[in-house]
Amino acid sequence: MSTVIGRGAALLVAMVLALGLAACGDDDGTGEGDGTTSTTADTTSTTSTTEAAEQEAEDPEGEAVPVGVYFVRDEKVAAARADVVPPATARGAIEALLGGPAGVQGAEGMTSEIPDGTELLGLSIEDGTAVVDLSGEFTSGGGSLSMQLRAAQVVFTLAQFDTVAEVTFHIDGEEVDALGGEGVPAAGVDRTDFGGVTPLVLVTSPLPGEEVGSRLVVEGISNTFEANVLYEVVGAGGTTLAEGFTTASAGTGTWGDFRVEVELEGGEPGPVTLVAYQENMEDGGRQDVYEVPLQLR
């Protein structure tokens, strides 16, 4: 049943409700009371605050967390480490990427193909797609290899986050079919689109310079013979602290993921090096070697 209330009666009802809510309010100022909110605007505000609190509980604001930032080494992408402040970790990672390898932890010997002056104009992530808007400098200069590398740097940096399955580029706020005049795809791309500039063994975790304990979890991607990835952890003076192999989810012409837990034995606190590689089938030597400097605590 609906009742039409006159303006005066409505005002009286609103005053009574307001007094009732004030009487029921919490002494501690949390505003929880009986769970009633006075207006629609208040309800929206409460929801937003709750979502923000949940995010901060996962990544407390003010406490920097390490993220991967992908630069270039030997004309392939390579992971470095940057510390960014949540909750905007993806944005922080891209800003660290655009800042270049100077000053980024674990970036020794790395360069960047992203032109100086490139700015991040916007970043959104929805339904697994990250839309990154970069200034026009991003597509200036360089040939095909350079354009592939700079696009791969952005894609690999964003793909580390579970919420990102693919990346779409915008330039100066506009959608583009390709990056520059090199035909590098700009929409719906992922790491598999950049196999030509990806090392056949790439360690994505731990990151260079990271402090590790006696149990080390090694993760990465590879495209190796029969999906085999070998590893060694070398301590001071060349002492081998661990060695072995793991099998990726795919190989022999197909990219796969690998993960292995490694127990370090007899290592002294200090610098150690993780070495991942595949075996040369002709002479048994190492090839596609990927090294990660670490600190054993």
Brief summary:
This protein is of the alpha+beta class. It is 21% helix and 34% strand. The longest helix has 19 residues, at 40-58.
Q: What are the key terms here?
A:
297 residues; four-stranded mixed sheet; 21% helix; 34% strand; alpha+beta; single chain
Any overview of this molecule?
This protein is α+β, with helices and mostly antiparallel strands. 21% of the residues lie in helices and 34% in strands. The chain has helices spanning 7-24, 40-58, 89-98, 144-159; strands spanning 65-73, 76-84, 120-126, 129-134, 166-171, 174-175, 178-179, 184-185, 201-205, 211-212, 215-222, 228-234, 240-247, 256-263, 270-279, 286-296. β1 (65-73) and β2 (76-84) form a beta hairpin. The protein is globular, with a radius of gyration of 26 Å. The chain starts with 6 loop residues before the first helix and ends with a strand.
Q: Globular, elongated, flat, extended or rod-shaped: what is the shape?
A: globular
- Structural class of the secondary structure composition? alpha+beta
- Unreliable stretches covering 5 or more consecutive residues: 1-59
Report the count of strand segments.
Answer: 16
Side-by-side strand order of the widest sheet: 10-16-15-12-13
Helix-strand string: HHEEHEEHEEEEEEEEEEEE
Distance between the termini: 71 Å
Summarize the amount of helix as a percent range.
10-25%
What percentage of amino acids are in beta strands? 25-35%
Q: If you compute it from the alpha carbons, what radius of gyration comes out, rounded to the nearest whole angstrom? A: 26 Å
Largest pleated sheet: 5 strands, mixed
Average pLDDT? 83
**Number of helical elements:** 4
